[in-house]
Amino acid sequence: MSHAELITRFQQAGQGHVFAFWADLSPPQQHALADQAAEIDLAEIARLHRRLVAEATGAATASASELAPAPYIALPGNGGDAAQWAQARTAGEAALRAGRVAAFTVAGGQGTRLGFDGPKGTFQVTPVQAKPLFQVFAEKILAAGRRYGRPIHWFIMTSHANHDETTAFFAGHANFGLSNEHVHFFRQGRLPAVAHDGKIMLEAKDAMAMSPDGHGGSLRALHRSGALDVMEQAGVDILSYFQVDNPLVRCIDAEFVGHHLLAQSEMSSKMVPKAYAEEKVGLFCVQNDKLAVVEYSDVPMELQRETDASGALRFSAGSIAIHLIDREFARRMAAGGEAVELPFHRADKKIPTLDATGNPVKPAKINGVKFELFVFDALPFARNPIVIETARADDFSPVKNADGVDSPETCRADQQRQFARWLRAAGAELFVDAAGMPQHALEISPLFGYDAETVAESWRRLVPSPNLQQPLYLS
Ligand code: UTP
What we know:
The chain is α/β, with parallel strands linked by helices and 475 residues long. 31% of the residues lie in helices and 19% in strands. It is globular.
């Protein structure tokens, strides 16, 4: 399409202001803006604005009668069936030995709350070695591949904003030991932010204010980028999905994979029991007979506080953004259509933009809306979706904020508590305080061990045992 045709299309859609400064731009700048504009689905933007902004009726809290607590497979220590977990482990290990599982990290977020300059995966997170998040995952994936005798493929979703920096980071660190043929990057889609009147916002004279389309954009992007075909050729049919901000995650979890396979599920999730009724986590619920994650703000507070006869919260299953997704389910979701369409959500934000004369504006209050897809919204479309329980301390300690809850400080402490638990379970005489913290800084490389069992195996081989009365890194 020529530039003139593109501009006309925008004018006809009431978005002609996107080209307000066209005459001021150099030819390369004009090309850049035109390329961006050609990416935009104007009808989709108009539809999203109409549905989520113009005709929005405020937060849609679900009614109590349409929600029931979601069933889940409890841990053996919490009333679950030990034989079922053992069977799951056997099935999961067989799938891993057959190379059927790939790791999948969504790393396209903007990480605004952490306020770190750079892709979040490059943030240095471990307590002694200050390894970046990407290195922690890479080493877990490498170690699991060695354990199961099959290198594991790793798919990483980036954004337009962080793609080049992310790939350069991996190249600069030789993929942290993984081979090029097993590490795959692809970019997620993006959408322009709109003002409350539906006008697309400009971030510069030659650029719209674009932002990534949410972690739910991963399903479309897996398909569009050809990643699903790469998986198919490699014999991978299950993606182990996790977020870039959570170094505690078991990237590759044989028991989880086994439960998923035994249930013939297309999408499975992990839950942790909520720490307290008001905790702000998405909740696994059954809504209109379908498994779904409902945002905490959409569940009536009286339901969140309800307890059963034993005093336990009825709605206790908190979502921690760890899923298994079948390759062909992702393909079906990506194809879209009325029957399988993920809903967009709106996020009201302060969006740096330009005024009518082209001067930059740093807004003091909310001035626009971004649209995002959430991956957990795929659950109601999946065949036989299941939820399994995990221990928070073994799977979840995200780095979201610069300080306070879910910050680098809390995450470093949680990592050290986990390392200490593993060593103590292996028989090491390591002293911890009442909160489980070791006296000296402690870090265990995933290549030494990445769970209680693998750490115990390596620990037994260490002769003589290292001195535990000083800071320690086991690798
Ligand atoms: P968050 O919801 O924490 O968002 O993402 P964020 O953008 O990283 O951080 P804030 O809200 O700006 O502080 C959870 C996970 O989903 C990924 C993130 O990279 C993170 O792993 N994500 C989020 C994407 O990959 N793409 C997106 O568009 C949004």
